[in-house]
């Protein structure tokens, strides 16, 4: 069997024939993850693995992805490659499973996967803690003006102390609104409780018992936007939620509001966000995700001192990334052995 692993981390490339191990492996920062994946997929299960080296060869374009997927039984996929119907059809009749190094699956044509009976795996749960931690870090960075303060120090502008210099906004006694109350939304709410907000509101497709148990209050989206000092976006990107945060939504927010997005850039109309930040319709934003990614250096968001931008590192702890990599591999192995996937995607995921 041949399995195609697309770009997941910056690592050395090996194409390993069956039952043949290179005498000397080169090492990198992700050696443990790499070795585990190779052992799991190749040594223990005798699968032949082909890898796209994104560091030396660059991102995969559609033409190359179509070429690589032909004749493969499985794909170990990056969240940054688009698996539309053309790509998926190119993998037929051999392709049996796509397992993605991500929780979200908005880069994969779900209808095509269903129509062609391709199993789809993803990585729920294992990145929840890392992402929820980072959401709070991003919220604090934006609200307490850490990026601006660091610039003051580095640029030699830290000359004296003033009572209101670089003052930001605290969480204590505030209202925090969470849009989307799945695993990550709930984990954020639990962690925020220690900061003593007055209220935690959440907007979701339905009321969630786990939210109610910790005192979070179920409200509609408009009520959340009008009432919240902090708005954290945590919902999945779908055709229904694409650009859900746009002109009207930012106009409804409080002028002191801090906006945070740690899930998908496509949820936000970035022109509307630029306008809201530039004209101080909201106080600040913290973004770990954008559209497009990487965000061009000349993008208007890059020029705003009240916007903290991170390079999509919400799940970037060693443990989370190792757990994600292992789960992606286990999904593939399960399908190819005729077993149940440990993390098969469903619309209820």
Can you put this structure into words, describing what you see?
With 349 residues, the chain is an alpha/beta fold. It contains 13 helices and twelve strands. The chain has helices spanning 31-43, 54-57, 62-69, 85-90, 110-115, 128-143, 146-154, 183-192, 209-213, 221-227, 247-252, 270-278, 318-336, and strands at residues 2-5, 48-51, 74-77, 97-100, 119-121, 175-179, 199-203, 217-218, 230-233, 258-261, 284-287, 307-309. The strands form two sheets. A seven-stranded parallel β-sheet has the order 8-7-6-9-10-11-12, sandwiched between helices. Strands 2-1-3-4-5 form a five-stranded parallel β-sheet, covered by helices on one side. Helix 1 packs parallel to helix 13 (318-336) and helix 6 (128-143) crosses helix 8. Mean pLDDT is 87; it is low at 1-32.
Low-confidence runs of at least 5 consecutive residues: 1-32
Helix content: 25-40%
Structural class: alpha/beta
Number of helices: 13
For the secondary structure, the number of strands is 12
Quick one: biggest sheet?
Answer: 7 strands, parallel
Instruction: Provide the spatial order of strands within the biggest beta sheet.
Output: 8-7-6-9-10-11-12
Order of helices and strands: EHEHHEHEHEHHEHEHEHEHEHEEH
- Whole-number mean pLDDT: 87
- Principal-axis shape equals globular
């Amino acid at each position: 069997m041949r399995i195609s692993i697309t770009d997941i981390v910056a690592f050395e490339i090996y194409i390993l024939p069956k039952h043949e191990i290179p005498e000397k492996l080169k090492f990198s920062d992700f050696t443990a993850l790499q070795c585990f994946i190779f052992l799991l997929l190749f040594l223990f299960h005798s699968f032949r693995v082909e890898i796209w080296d994104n560091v030396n060869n660059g991102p995969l374009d559609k033409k190359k992805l179509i070429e690589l997927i032909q004749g493969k039984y499985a794909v170990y996929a990056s969240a940054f490659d688009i698996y539309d119907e053309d790509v998926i059809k190119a993998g037929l009749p051999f392709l049996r499973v796509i397992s993605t190094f991500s929780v979200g699956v908005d880069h994969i044509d779900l209808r095509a996967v269903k129509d062609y009976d391709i199993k789809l795996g993803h990585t729920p749960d294992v990145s929840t803690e890392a992402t929820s931690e980072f959401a709070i870090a991003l919220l604090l960075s934006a609200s307490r003006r850490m990026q601006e303060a660091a610039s003051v120090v580095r640029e030699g502008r830290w000359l004296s102390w003033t009572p209101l210099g670089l003052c930001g906004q605290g969480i204590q006694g505030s209202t925090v609104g969470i849009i989307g109350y799945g695993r990550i939304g709930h984990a954020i709410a639990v962690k925020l409780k220690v900061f003593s907000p007055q209220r935690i509101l959440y907007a979701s497709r339905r009321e969630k018992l786990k939210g109610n148990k910790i005192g979070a209050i179920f409200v509609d989206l408009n009520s959340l936007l009008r009432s919240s000092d902090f708005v954290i976006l945590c919902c999945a990107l779908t055709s229904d939620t694409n650009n859900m945060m746009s002109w009207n939504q930012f106009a409804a927010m409080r002028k002191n509001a801090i906006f945070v997005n740690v899930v998908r850039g496509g949820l936000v109309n970035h022109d509307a966000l630029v306008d809201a930040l530039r004209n101080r319709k909201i106080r600040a934003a913290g973004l770990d995700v954008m559209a497009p990614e990487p965000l061009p250096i000349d993008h208007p968001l890059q020029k705003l001192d009240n916007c903290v931008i991170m390079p999509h590192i919400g799940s970037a702890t060693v443990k989370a990334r190792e757990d994600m990599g292992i789960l992606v591999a286990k999904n593939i192995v399960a399908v190819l052995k005729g077993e149940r996937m440990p993390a098969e995607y469903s619309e209820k995921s």
